[in-house]
Each structure stands twice: as C-alpha cells, then as structure tokens.
Specification:
Helices cover about 15% and strands about 40% of the residues. It has about 450 residues and is mainly β. It is globular and about 75 Å long. The structure holds copper (II) ion. Copper (II) ion binds near residues 435, 437, 440 and 450.
C-alpha cells in the first residue's frame, strides 16, 4: 500500500525506455499530447499571421493573454528588433499590462477585448511585466519579457515565427525530457516520534529554501521541512497527535489543519484562535484523530503568499476504502495511494506536487491494479484534472465518503477542495494525466506545468 518512491518510479520508467515497444508508447504519448493541443496552437498562429499582414512594418507578432491572475505565457520572448504584441483579456475582469522599464502601460482592457501595440527595438535582456490593476500584480499576475539573445538562448526561434517542423521538434524535445530529474522531492510520509503515552509527534520547521520546480529553474519556496509539498502526516483514527511548528521564516505564521476535526484553539487562525507564531518561535498543535479524513495543513497567515509559495502538505487520517457499489466492477483492493497537490501561483506556479512538467513524477500501475488519488487544490484557480483512460470513480469529497460513487474522467478541483478518486488500470501504455485548462498544460513550446503520466504495465 505504501506509495512507490520517486526513485522506484523513475527506475521503472528507465527500465521501460530500454524496451523498444515501451519507448514507442512513450513516443506515442508525446505525439498524442502534441496532437491534443495542436489545433488550438494553429488557430493562434493563423490569427497572428493575418494581423501581421495588415501592417507595412514586418514586426513579428506575439500574443499575450491576460487570464485569471496570470499572464499567459508568463515568459514572453521577442527579438531585439521589436515585436507587435497582441494582448487579449480572456478573464472575466478587466486587466492591463505594464512593462515599466519600457515605459509601457496600457489602458484597462475589458473582458474579451484585445489590444495591439508595437514594442520598439529594445536592448537584449529580461524585463518585468505585470497587470497594472491594483492588487493583481501582488496576486501573481506577473511575467517576464525576454528580449533578443536572451530569448534565443536555446537556439530555437520564437513561438510566433516557428515553422510547423520547428514546433514539433521543440515539443518532442520537451516530451523526451520527461521524467526529468530535479533536486528535492516533496510529500513523502513523515515518520512520527512516538511519545511514552503513545502520542505521535511530528516536528515541522517552516523555512525558505531554493526549490527546483523544473530542470534548472530554482525558486524561493516557503516550506515545511524544506520540501514542496510538505511531508505527509499520516495517522490512524484514535491516535493522539502533536505537531510542533518551529518558525524560521522572516514573517509570522500559523498552521491550519484544513478538513481535520480539532478543538477551536488548535485551528491555527491567528489572531483569533492563537497569537501569530513569530519568527524564531514555536507553537504546538495537539488533537485526537477522530474520523477518517483527507486533510491538508497549510499556513493561515498572509496565506495568499505563504501557501502558493509552498506551505502546504497532506494530513491523512486512516486509509481510503472501496465502496461496496464498486466491488462488482472488479475493484477489490487499493494497490497504491497517491496524493496530488495542485498549485498555480506564487513562486512555485503551475505544478503537480511542487514540480512542473517535465519534472513531474510519473506513476505506475499494472493492468488490473487500483490507485486511489487524493487531489488537493492549494492554488488560486480551479483545475479540471483529467486522466486519459480509464474513467475513475469519485469515492470521497473533502475526506467524506460519498453515499454513491460518481464516475469521472475529468474532476474539477476548486481551491481548498479534496477529491478521492479510484482509478483501475485497464489498457497498458503511457497515459497522459493533466489539468484540462489547456493553458495550464501546453504552449507552442510544448507541455509544461500541470502534466504527468500514468504508466500502465502488462
Ligand atoms: Cu489548471
């Protein structure tokens, strides 16, 4: 029942890639996912071409979407000769674009509207850009404009001018890196110290570390014990639990046990249920685990910054069980439990368990095996999580067993929600597993962000 470690998963994939047939299925996975997004990318490219022909000046056209508290793409590349920037607001509220070092500040753009502006020849370098509407920059609506050779660092041409062959090559290159090795692995179960009276004690230190979200991209992560997600705290119903939080952050903090039944004084909501835990101080949370739960522990202090930056981890009480309604369908035992924590903001950004594709972790099952997935959304947006074949069954919502399981191949997980889904492996192969908001999973430069795979072996 214990989840396979990352090293065993990677070893499994490495073993598979030595096998020609398996390598073929990995390639077909890449091709399938490329195809999945290709139509949309073509549409964008055509749109740009038509806009460019309206002008006598042959500036490359690049597109930037203003989404829900994010710039898409967050990293925009243009040549030093300048570019025509087409900005579209795809969100439901007004946004604008500011590039302070270039003196660019657009008017507010209404939902659904577009605006085109020409960026003049600009010195090579990276330039900050963000939404100018009050509060939106702080909410994560920021990005980087990369100009000139900085934009060409990988030797590839820009998204707006790539040929079809170039685009396919870039997509294949990214897909082949999966699963890419990065430093650090979050979410592993934390062994408790068992005290004389049987209490299970978990010691957490909140601290800032450099975290490798994807190969070579290190960010300042706010963590518990230096990993994202924080280690899983797992106990059984009836256990007495003690969590000792030491604060080594430059800010005060407090720890909320989301979805766990605790006394009010242990709810971690400063300044109501406790004083904020100051830098250098500690706070001890104590409770008895009363019921089965799929909870998450996270900061409840300056939370819109501390949580997206990494301060979240699963806390589970007991183990999921198979509802009797699913037994006739061959669901007899749960072979693997996977916690998948979604995030989209802060320094970590679009990620599954603190990593962005191609550094996300693949999972393996044998045909006939059943995997229980606990989805947690610790981001600021909803994410429809889609596992290609087979359809799963939602058996619990927010840690409470459903009276009747509900089938799903795409489950919308809102911020703060948890869903427990059983998936049974039917067909061998490498099956894509991703957020179905496509801008969270794919760009013209290939897959990124909230993408991983389920590898089903014969
Ligand atoms: Cu998403």
């Amino acid at each position: 029942m214990s989840p396979c470690s990352r090293s065993c998963e990677v070893a499994t994939l490495a073993r598979m890639s030595k096998n020609d047939a398996r390598a073929l299925s990995i390639a077909s996975f890449a091709v399938a996912v490329v195809a999945m997004f290709f139509a949309a990318v073509l549409l964008i490219t055509r749109h740009d071409d038509s806009a460019a022909t309206e002008s006598a000046v042959t500036l490359e056209t690049v597109t930037l979407d203003l989404g829900a508290m994010k710039l898409q793409p967050a990293d925009l590349m243009i040549p030093a000769e300048g570019a025509r920037l087409r900005i579209t607001n795809i969100d439901a509220t007004a946004h604008s674009l500011v590039i302070p070092d270039l003196g660019i500040r657009t008017a507010e753009i209404a939902p659904g509207d577009s605006l085109t502006l020409d960026i003049p020849p600009t010195a090579d370098g990276t330039y900050e850009m963000y939404c100018g509407v009050a509060g939106h920059k702080e909410a994560g609506m920021t990005g980087t404009l990369m100009v000139g050779t900085t934009a060409n660092g990988d030797g590839m041409s820009h998204g707006g001018t790539m040929t079809n062959e170039e685009m396919d090559a870039v997509m294949l290159e990214v897909a082949r890196k999966f699963p890419a090795q990065t430093e650090g692995h979050g979410g592993d179960r934390l062994a408790p110290t068992v005290l004389a009276d049987g209490t299970k004690q978990f010691d957490l230190v909140a601290k800032i570390v450099q975290w490798e979200v994807e190969p070579g991209r290190f960010v300042e992560a706010w963590t518990y014990k230096g990993v994202v997600p924080a280690p899983e705290i797992h106990v059984n119903v009836g256990d007495k639990v003690r969590i000792v939080l030491k604060n080594d952050l430059p800010q005060s903090t407090s720890l909320h046990l989301h979805g766990i039944q605790v006394p009010n004084s242990m709810d971690g909501v400063d300044p109501y249920t406790q004083a904020p835990t100051l830098p250098g101080d500690s706070f001890t949370y104590e409770f008895t685990a009363k019921t089965y739960a799929t909870g998450i522990y996270h900061s409840h202090h300056n939370a819109q910054e501390q949580i997206p930056n990494g301060m979240f981890g699963a806390i589970t009480i007991g183990d999921p069980t198979i509802p009797e309604q699913l037994e006739p369908m061959g669901y007899t035992q749960i072979d693997k439990v996977v916690n998948m924590v979604l995030n989209d903001s802060g320094t970590i950004g679009l990620s599954l368990n603190g990593k962005s594709f191609p550094a996300t972790e693949p999972y393996t099952l044998k045909v006939g095996q059943v995997m229980a997935v606990n989805y947690y959304n610790e981001g600021l947006m909803g994410h429809p999580m889609h596992l290609h074949q087979p359809a799963g069954w939602i058996i619990a919502k927010d840690g409470v067993q459903m009276l009747t399981p509900m089938p799903t191949d795409t489950v919308w997980v809102s911020p703060g929600e948890r869903y427990t889904v059983l998936y049974k492996a039917i067909e061998p192969g490498v099956w894509a597993w991703h957020c179905h908001i496509l801008t969270h999973a794919e760009s013209s430069k290939g897959m990124f962000g909230m993408v991983t795979a389920l590898i089903v072996e014969q």
